[in-house]
Each structure stands twice: as C-alpha cells, then as structure tokens.
Write a structure and sequence with these properties.
Keywords: Heme, Iron, Metal-binding. Pfam families: Cytochrome_CBB3. One of its GO terms (molecular function) is heme binding. This is C-type cytochrome. InterPro entries: Cyt_c-like_dom, Cyt_c-like_dom_sf. By secondary structure, the chain is of the alpha+beta class. It has 2 domains: 25-37 and 245-339, no CATH class; 50-239, no CATH class. It is 29% helix and 21% strand. The protein has helices spanning 2-33, 186-193, 206-209, 222-229, 253-264, 288-291, 293-305, 322-339; strands at residues 69-72, 84-90, 112-119, 128-138, 141-149, 156-159, 163-170, 176-183, 194-195, 198-199, 212-215, 218-221. The chain has a 6-stranded antiparallel beta sheet with strand order 1-2-3-4-5-6, with helices on one face. A two-stranded antiparallel sheet has the order 7-8. It has a two-stranded antiparallel sheet with strand order 9-10. It is globular. The two termini are 31 Å apart.
Length: 341
C-alpha cells in the first residue's frame, strides 16, 4: 500500500512539473517571438488617396477592377478575423511576371499587389469595406502601406499608425458577431512581410496560385490563365507544386494543417522571417523533422487557442480562428497517437 502511495505521489509530482515546464517553455518561446524587430522603411512615398492608383472603376465601393488590373485567388488564405478579401494585381503595360519555382514569381518593377478586406453582411446587412493594403515594387524593393476606407465607402485614406474599427457582421448561419477590427500600421507590415532585410509578398507564391478558378466565364488553371493573358511568361506548370486548401475537409488532415501553418505562420517562422530565432520552420515544403512542430506542439496549441499578448498569429487577429484551432488540435492529436504507437 505504501509503495502504491509513493508511486502515486511521484506521478502527481511529475505531472505538476511537466505542466510547469510546459508553461515556462511557452513563456520563453513567446518572448522570443514577440521581440521587437526593426521596421523596414519604404523607399517611395505613397499617395494620400487609394483612388490615385487607378485600381478600381468609378464607384469604388463596387470593387470592380479597372482595365489592366487582374483579380486573383489563392488556395490557402491568411485568417484575418473572418474578413473576406479581394486580391488584385497590376503589372505595368508591356511587362510580364516570371514563375520562379514554387515561390514568389519574379514581378517587374512597378507591380502593385492590392488586398481589400471587407464583410459582406455588416450590421446594416450591407457590405462594409474596411481597408486596402498595397505592396508596390519599386527599384527592386517592395513597399507596404494600408488605406482605411471612409464611412461613405467612396475612397480610402493612407494610414501611418494603424486604426481600430468596431464592426458587427454576420457570422456562420446568420449568427451576429462584433469585434474591434485592427488595421495594421506600416511597422506591422514589416513584422509579417519581413524576408531578411526586405519586405516580400506572402500569399501570391506560385504554388498558392496554382489552382482552378473561374475566369472569363470558365473554369481554368489560374497560372495558365495569367500566361494566356500575357501577364506571366510561359512556364512548365507541371513542375509547379500546389498548396492544398486547408478548408477542404476531403483532404488529409496533415496536408491541411501544414498548409494552414504555411500561410498563417511561415512568413515569420522561417529562416529569413521575423521569428527566425525560434525553433520553428513552418514552410509547407519543409520536412516534418525540420519544422520543429513535434517539439513545440503544446506551445503551438497554447498560443493559437489563447488570446492576449502572446497569441499567434501575432498580427491581424483579435478573435480565435475556431476552425483553424480545431484543425491544428486534430493534427497534433494525430501526431501524439502516431508517436505513442
């Protein structure tokens, strides 16, 4: 009896110590991820009004692209407080982008990439546009800025320090939800878009563009469509990989979770990112053994499922991504089951 009691107490002590070790590791890991990084300055001056870039036809709130401006989609999008997004690209006349493996295409100088954030059904049941983020390539360097849409939804004004916008919107199946939406500052842009000492687009990598879309009234491969339109140079698309959609529940959980990490986390958690000093490398093509996922799996769950200063993703979220957290939980539970076999 005494022996059983001794082992029971020992087991409890080990359990408590394990919890403390996990918490200490989480705090140290969080501190390393939240350390300040130097802002990457722009080398251009942005216009005061979004309308000055000629991205939209008259009646900007309709979000109809102007001639020479192409809409595009990506297979796995960044989660931003359940906001919907329109993505546009404007390549200078007579210029073309070149596909460079699975990564970011080589865009010509003067390229503009725009992403507009909105809620289809806001408190008044109408679409509410909140912000448009611009990335402009000039003299071989990407520059970033955010524009906040005015109340009349007729234009958007350049921001320097970010903004908070209260918003009510229709959540799943008619459920109403409210939040304080955060429009990032230029410093925030540097945090997420950092690649070494420069900025770099996150979403429009070739493998994330390599998907079937509806363009000009028919279903077709998006990269092939851009080649036919003459804005991308011809390329061997068979050699290009395809990032899975993490929202596609017919796919393997591991594929979906890795795709989720790639778009939501890997822009920082990669060798040239803002969190390069951590033990995580979450790119989709990184081998599992080199990702650090197994070692950090409990910290990943804690940081994703708890709001506050140490929540991840660090920028662009004020509420939990319920579906994303559940996906990662399922994935990690599967890892534990596999490793315990």
């Amino acid at each position: 009896m005494a022996e059983k009691l001794r082992w029971s107490v020992t087991g409890q002590i080990r359990s408590v110590l394990s919890v403390y070790v996990s918490l200490i590791a989480a705090v140290l890991y969080a501190a390393s991820c939240n350390s300040d990084t130097e802002t990457i300055a722009n080398n251009i001056s942005f216009h005061d009004k979004l309308s000055e870039y000629g991205l939209f036809k008259s009646g900007m709130s309709e979000l109809n692209p102007e001639k020479g401006v192409e809409m595009f989609d990506i297979a796995s999008p960044l989660f931003t407080d359940y906001a919907e997004k329109q993505r546009l690209i404007k390549i200078p006349d007579g210029q073309k982008a070149t596909i460079d493996g699975n990564g970011l295409p080589l865009f010509p100088d003067g390229t503009i990439i725009a992403k507009t954030f909105y809620y289809s059904k806001s408190g008044n049941k109408k679409r509410r546009i909140l912000e448009t983020r611009l990335l402009i390539l000039k003299h071989g360097k990407w520059n970033a800025a955010t524009y906040q849409w005015n109340v009349m939804q007729t234009n958007a004004n350049l921001l320097t320090s970010g903004a908070v916008v209260p918003i009510a919107f229709e959540y799943h199946s008619g459920i109403q939800r409210k939040l304080a939406y955060k429009i990032p500052s230029q410093n925030d842009c540097s945090s997420c878009h950092r690649s070494g000492d420069q900025l770099s687009p996150i979403g429009p990598k070739a493998r994330n563009l390599n998907m079937t879309v509806t363009a000009e009234g028919k279903r077709q491969n998006q990269l092939d469509y851009f080649i036919k339109k003459g804005i991308f140079n011809p390329a061997d698309l068979i050699a290009i990989g395809a990032l899975p959609s993490y929202k596609d529940t017919t796919l393997d959980v591991a594929m979906r979770a890795r795709a989720y990490f790639d778009i939501n986390c890997a822009h920082c958690h990669q060798p040239a990112g803002a969190a390069s000093q951590t033990s995580l490398n979450l790119g989709y093509s990184t081998s599992f053994e080199e990702t650090g996922i197994d070692f950090n799996k409990q910290n990943i769950l804690i940081r994703m499922s708890t709001m506050g200063a140490y929540h991840m993703p660090k920028i662009g979220t004020t509420v939990l991504d319920d579906e994303g957290v559940q996906l990662v939980k399922t994935y990690i539970k599967g890892l534990d089951s596999h490793l315990n076999q």
